[in-house]
Amino acid sequence: MCRVMQALPGFRDFYPEDCARRNHIVSIWRKVAKRYGFVEFDGPVLESTDLYRKKNEEGAEILEQLYSFADRGGREIALRPEMTPTLARMVAAREKHYRKPMKWFCVSNFFRHERQQKGRLREFLQFNADIIGESSPQADAETIALAIDLMRAFGFTAENFVVRLSDRKAWMDFLASRGCDDAACRIALACADKLEREPEEKLNSKLAPTGLTVADLKGFIAAGSPEAFAPVMDALAARGLTGFVQPDLSIVRGLAYYTGVVFEIFDRSKNLRALAGGGRYDGLIKGLSDGSVDLPAIGFGMGDVVLGHLIDETPAASSLLQSALAASCDVYVIIADESKRSEALHIIQSCRELGLTTDFPLKSSKIGKQFQEAENLGASHAVVVGQEWPLVKLKHLATRAEETLEHTALASKLKTQFKT
RNA sequence: GUGGUCGUAGCUCAAUGGCAGAGCUCCAGGUUGUGGUCCUGGCUGUUGCGGGUUCGAGUCCCGUCGAUCACCCCA
After folding, report:
1. Which of A3, A73, A169, A239 is most buried, with most CB under 10 Å away?
2. What is the pLDDT of residue A365?
3. Which residues are paired to A277 by β-bridges?
């Protein structure tokens, strides 16, 4: 295969079936977010590279993975790798215009130049939801509840996924009580994040400068921090969502900017990467706006790639997807007599004006083929236009029941059939 | 960026170093105005690409591109 004939690595072609799949995911994201009173926003795909450099020191991973280049005017620009900087920029510019709290979501495509693997591509869709201007644990619970209900809307249950809930502030308080400074905190959190993946000796040597040991971290995690989670857990319990959440201080998340509640959603079988993740970032907007706007915020992201894998692995979710994917055609008009094509076109046009999905053969073909095609398209009804004109036949394909009627009576008949 | 595995028809896969195949899909026929099954026929390949070894390479070796998994990272 010629190289220019295939999509770039990590990028996807969306054939009709792929598009249908993507539309299913996107429509559920939108439906549930709106149900929660979130409003949709979007920003530019290209941003100034400085926007991403601002909160990251030179050489940071996030900058290494940027698709960045100079445009024709010599301006350094980048394809967006995430939404939060754009959101912070937009909020800082217009926050006075919007009532607080702002409940915003977006469904956007993002780009990261990294080695692809299962659940990770270079281009992906991500749902993002953020509540800006409210620091209460009620906002945390609202955000987590939205994440849970999104998952449920895809057909997942508590058997399939779990929200692991943690709290950065509990960690920071613990580390401060052990005399850690900022640098030591960073090391300790990084090690906490790797407890399950790296051998104890290695972690202990990394922890040396902090005066802590793996045992200390594990002790803190094991002790839990019920008082830190209580307000959020209570609010989730009142919604009947406790069964989806598991307090777990071993969740740290890589980002430095989180300041409070953090959470990740995992599949129960732990086959996949995180399905969603987020947390509270009360200082980020202030930092990105050079202090001009100071608003608390909490948000999370959910990508389409890992989600798609879990849908495929979960029968209930994939049957939901299949029914959304099913070919839908209301009426297939069969042109039994080619000399009546004009009359058929007239009927086709009126069916479409009724709002019915209507199809028909673009060239002369045998009746049998046409019924076959109606079947293939999943049509519920066939209208046969032929020698009997001005009479036509309306056939319900599933029951094979057929009736003959005046073509002038067809529209009202179809109206009652489809309740349009 | 590092390491492992794998690349054969549109898809899923066969072929001991010895004639590149099957199923599905797709297309066209079979019933002279009625559909899911059926029957017949047909299409598609520089075996990802480029070198090398060999009388002979889809098969072995090297490179390259791509896929995939792990590391890294996960905004």
Report:
1. A169
2. 86
3. A264, A301
**Three-state secondary structure call for residue A308:** helix
- Is residue A14 situated within a structural domain? yes
pLDDT computed for residue A1 by the predictor: 39
Length of chain A: 420
Mean pLDDT confidence for A353-367: 90
Considering all nucleic acid strands, name the nucleotide whose C1' atom is nearest to the C-alpha of residue A82.
B75
Digit-coded pLDDT (tens) for A70-85 = 999 999 999 999 999 9
Which residues 44 to 103 of A reach strand B, CB within 7 A? 61-62, 65-66, 81-82, 84
Q: Are residues A261 and A335 in the same domain?
A: no
Total domain count, chain A: 2
Give the end of a domain, one of A322, A344, A371: A322
Residue A69 lies in a domain: no
A343 and A316 in a common domain: no
- Give residue-wise pLDDT tens across range A376-394: 888 889 999 998 889 999 9
| Contact positions of strand B to protein Cβ (< 7 A) | 1-2, 26, 30-31, 33-36, 48, 65-75
Asked if A305 and A120 touch (Cβ cutoff 8 Å), the reply is yes
Q: Are residues A361 and A259 in the same domain?
A: no
Nucleotide nearest to A379 (CA to C1'): B35
Structure tokens at A111: 């780009």
Residue ranges making up the domain that contains A364: 327-418
| DSSP state letters, A49-88 | HHHHHTTS-TT-HHHHT--EEE-TTS-EEEE-S-SHHHHH
* Neighbour count for residue A356 (Cβ, 10 Å): 20
Q: Is A4 or A276 the better-scoring residue by pLDDT?
A: A276
What tens digit of pLDDT does each residue of A35-72 get? 999 999 999 999 999 988 876 655 567 778 899 889 99
Q: What is the ipTM of this complex?
A: 0.84
DSSP notation for A25-39: HHHHHHHHHHHTT-E
Question: Are A85 and A24 part of one and the same domain?
Answer: yes
- If asked whether residues A15 and A135 sit together in one domain, one would say yes
| Average pLDDT score over chain A | 89
Out of A261, A289, A322, a domain closes at A322
CB neighbours of A21 closer than 8 A, spacing ≥ 6? A308, A321, A325
Interatomic separation, CA of residue A376 and C1' of nucleotide B22, rounded (Å): 26
Percentage, residues of chain A above pLDDT 70: 97
User: Residue A66 domain-assigned?
Assistant: no
